[in-house]
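Budget justification aside, the reviewers requested a transparent look at the raw inputs and outputs of the sequence design task funded under Objective 1. We therefore reproduce one unedited record. The lines immediately below are the structure tokens for a 183-residue chain.
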């Protein structure tokens, strides 16, 4: 089964300010262990991340790659692998087709795996944009309360999104997924 993760606020710490270097990239407690557990159970992992900091000139593609090298290196120690990282480098004003809540990144992921659709894949995010994109492509969509998650959960009370399940963090989502698999 395929699990698509948002990056900032799901895998790594995010307080609303841009993460501009590998030194500023810090995994959330338990997130890499959780991804390692998923991999051990046979799940495939992809990431879909908005990175408008590139268009804004805060960091370049080489630095983004270096952040992702750090992610992959740290994850390896927990037995995890990310197959594919789809990122949107554009500014919101560019109105591209990939910046979530648009679904272009999900299309790239679907093509990477040669899938006809993403129905039944899992999406985990901390922002409404993630949830809207995940739902639009038919994923089982989860909100985590890390990163922007508490704010997003508040917002869902005002403007609900049908079918979103809420968990404290990625580790809790993974516990749920693994429990479902063994059932
Ligand atoms: Mg996020
Ligand atoms: Zn884009």
């Amino acid at each position: 089964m395929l699990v698509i993760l948002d990056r900032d606020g799901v895998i790594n710490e995010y307080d609303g300010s841009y993460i501009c270097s590998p030194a500023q990239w810090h995994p959330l407690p338990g997130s890499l262990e959780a991804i390692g557990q998923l991999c051990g159970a046979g799940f495939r992992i992809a990431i879909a991340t908005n990175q408008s900091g590139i268009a804004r000139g805060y960091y370049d593609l080489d630095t983004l790659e270096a952040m992702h090298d750090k992610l992959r290196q740290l994850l390896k120690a927990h037995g995890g692998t990310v197959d594919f990282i789809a990122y949107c480098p554009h500014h919101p004003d560019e109105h591209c087709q990939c910046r979530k809540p648009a679904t272009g990144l999900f299309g790239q992921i679907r093509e990477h795996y040669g899938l006809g659709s993403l129905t039944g894949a899992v999406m985990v995010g901390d922002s409404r944009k993630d949830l809207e994109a995940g739902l639009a492509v038919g994923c089982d969509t989860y909100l985590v309360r890390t990163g922007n998650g508490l704010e997003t959960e508040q917002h869902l009370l005002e403007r609900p999104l049908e079918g979103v399940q809420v968990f404290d963090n990625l580790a809790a989502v993974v516990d749920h997924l693994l429990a479902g698999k063994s059932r």
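The beta strands are 2-5, 44-50, 84-88, 122-125, 140-144, 165-167. The chain has one domain: 2-182. Computational costs for records of this kind are itemized in the attached budget.
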